[in-house]
Amino acid sequence: MNLAIIIGVSQYDNGNTLIACDNDIKIMKNISDKLNKFDDICYISNSPKAYEAKQLITEFVNKHQDQVIEEFVFYFSGHGARYNDDFFYIFKDFIEEKKETTGLRNTELDGLIKNLSPKLTVKIVDACFSGTTYIKSNQDNIEPIFKKSADKNKLNNLYFFYSSSSEEESLANKDYSFFSKSFFKSLTQNTGKIRYRDIMAYVADDMSLNSYPEPMFIVQANNTEIFGEINKELIEYIDSEFPILPMITNELKDNNVEKSKDLLSFIQQKSEKEYCTQNEGTANIQLIEELLQSDTWETDITDIFEIVIQELEYNIPNSTVIAKWLNKNSDEKYFIKPVYDSETYYVEEYIEVPEKPNSLNPFDIPYSAFLGSAKDYKLEKIEKTRNVLKGISFTAETPFKAIQAKFKPKFNSVENYILTIVPIFSRKHLVIFNSIEVLEYNSWDSISQAKCIEWNKVELFLKDKDKIITFCENKRLDVTTYIIEDIKSKLSF
Fold first, then answer.
1. Residue 267 and residue 271: Cα distance in Å, rounded?
2. pLDDT, tens digit, 9 for 90 and up, residues 62-103
3. Which of 61, 291, 306, 392 has CA 20 to 30 A from 200's CA?
4. Model's pTM, two decimal places?
């Protein structure tokens, strides 16, 4: 018997809406039905509260725990969270202070799956826009968390798909999540049987080619397990959900297309849809600053704070993290480069001491040259130099190198907050590094400077004005949530 649980959460009482999740689970359910693979599917839609979802999952497990389960598939599209040593699936009523009752621990889910004793367990998790609000950045990789839980609950054969690492945000538009789309599109490449490993390979390539966040995969299986039998009807259904395909895919599918014309069309399409002129790029970067001005924020923030926007020309906080990222992504020619500084340092090394001659006669040869005695050494401090990352330098004109939105409180009981944004861009891509933090009071009239210890980043096409606007809208929501929740927590509201 094969079982599946499909869960989608798009509406949140205390977080930003993820419209795409409803469509994600609809498509996943239809694909699962068309595969004729699953004997029973628990389909949980309409943005359930945690209690409702846990009840439905528990009832489904109890219903089948005495049966022989060959394969169990779990698909989730919604917010995710990481707290200490565990991952949480987030439901409509989630609040951080009650994460145990309003979220579902991954270890708890694995404990429920354990009751089914499936021979193969598959998890597909698309945690949309989780990076900014919930998943904490700059922490150790979350992979060991899932492996440890799986081992503890004896889920020996496992394929795990996760939309992004803990340092990145998953991306979506209003119609679908990009990771889920990539998963679904992997099924349209050929008819016949497709392995889980084949799907992983396609998703990894597709996410990389489109400069989306890098997905995370965990495999504890033999790479021969089959996801399903793909037929033309299923491919036609998936293509109908995602009708706009790159020209290069059409060329591969139709050998009768005139290659020269297709190449020209492909080049034209890439230029029109993905590459910016300087004027376009400048205008789209400027949008970020315009959409963070004080008049764009809700009264939840403006009633409590005065918002001041300032540009940073130099001394971008913690820019060495950005510089390291640039070094790792040197294939893309960004108009920003790492800057190095020469640093002097000292090490202690043993230096050979020349042996003194036996007399003042320079032609005398020491006896040790014949006898082969040990050489003398002394420990000396040696001066050396090395290149050290200092920060970043922009190589092209830009509306701003970095901006900070300072939230200055109107009331004594509230802290100062600051949002820092740095746009990293090329002719094609825009990577927005962003960090929100509290500025602590040093004295009555002095506050600390921004440190940007935790950078989040979002990768977009510089030409895609709509997604840049969406980023700004979501960032205002995320920052508002962060600040309001922090205030409530500190004031015990």
1. 6
2. 999 999 999 999 999 998 888 877 889 999 999 988 999 999
3. 61
4. 0.52
